[in-house]
Specification:
β10, α7 and β11 (203-204) form a beta-alpha-beta unit. The strands form two sheets. An eight-stranded mixed sheet has the order 5-4-3-2-1-9-10-11, sandwiched between helices. It has a three-stranded antiparallel sheet with strand order 6-8-7, with helices on one face. The chain is globular, with a radius of gyration of 17 Å. The chain folds into two domains: 5-75 and 148-223, Rossmann fold, CATH 3.40.50.1000; 79-145, Hypothetical Protein Ta0175, Chain: A, domain 2, CATH 3.90.1070. By secondary structure, the protein is of the alpha/beta class. It has eight helices and eleven strands. Bound molecules: 2-phosphoglycolic acid (PGA) and magnesium ion (MG). The site of magnesium ion has 8 residues, from loops. Substrate binds at residue 150. The active site is at 8 (nucleophile). InterPro entries: HAD-like_sf, HAD-SF_hydro_IIB, HAD_sf, PGPase.
Length: 225
């Protein structure tokens, strides 16, 4: 039997052009054990991806701030503290950097994401002041509660689907995946991963993005009893 999976989305299930490769959808649908999508994105994004892949909605969103598996929805973190940090950031001239309608944060409930064009030094300073984690995923900066992470959320989600976190194989590409790599039984970093993710992974793949992920998962499938 194949093991359950915890898969990051951006940089891991996507192409270098940030699109979802169609092979991702068939992979999700054909895996014979639970698949958890674990992302820094707001909750509706992974839910929609599960929906359109035709798989149960098992997701970790907002870097662990929101998690859902089999009808059980849980929250972690301190959104009021995050709001206060954003207020301080903006009062000092900071701008989250999303033009027009901010669909990145519109449905976000526990943390905040800023464009990587935003003032990184100011965001880092505010994160430190408010005792929040600063995460650079390569796609956005995030201010997240310090005790919230994909790895912490995987504990609850795993239990909900009848497994332990160490039963999972995790695949990811950036520092927001390191906590998940630490608790999963086996962790793969795709070739485009940052140094933190590569350092936390058990294996670094030769190929990047969704190609690397597909390589990892065929390896896992081949050796499954
Ligand atoms: O939201 C981000 O910044 C990155 O999302 P990811 O965790 O799916 O890579
Ligand atoms: Mg990623």
């Amino acid at each position: 039997m194949v093991p359950p999976l915890a898969l990051d989305i951006d940089g891991t299930l996507t192409t270098p052009e940030h699109t979802i490769d169609p092979r991702t959808l068939s992979l999700l649908a054909s895996w014979e054990a639970p698949v958890v999508l674990a992302t820094g994105k707001a909750f509706p994004y992974p839910v929609a991806l599960c929906h359109f892949a035709g798989v149960p909605e098992r997701v970790i969103a907002e870097n662990g701030g929101v998690a859902m598996a089999d009808g059980d929805l849980t929250y972690a973190g301190d959104p009021e503290r995050v709001d206060a940090a954003v207020e301080a950031f903006e009062a000092r001239g900071g701008d989250l950097g999303w033009d027009g309608v901010d669909t990145v944060n519109r449905w976000r409930e526990t943390e905040v994401a800023a464009s990587r064009t935003a003032d990184e030094a100011l965001l880092r300073a505010v994160a430190e002041e408010f005792d929040l984690a600063f995460l650079d995923t390569g796609y956005a900066y995030h201010l997240t509660s310090a005790d919230t992470s994909k790895g912490a959320a995987l504990g609850g989600v795993a239990e909900r689907v009848g497994y332990a976190p160490e039963d999972f194989v995790a695949v990811g590409d950036s520092e927001n995946d390191a906590s998940m790599f630490d608790v999963a039984g086996e962790a793969y970093a795709v070739a485009n991963a940052d140094e933190t993710a590569k350092g936390a992974a058990d294996h670094v793949l030769e190929r990047g993005y969704v190609d690397g992920t597909l390589d990892a998962l065929s390896r896992v499938r081949e050796r499954a009893p």
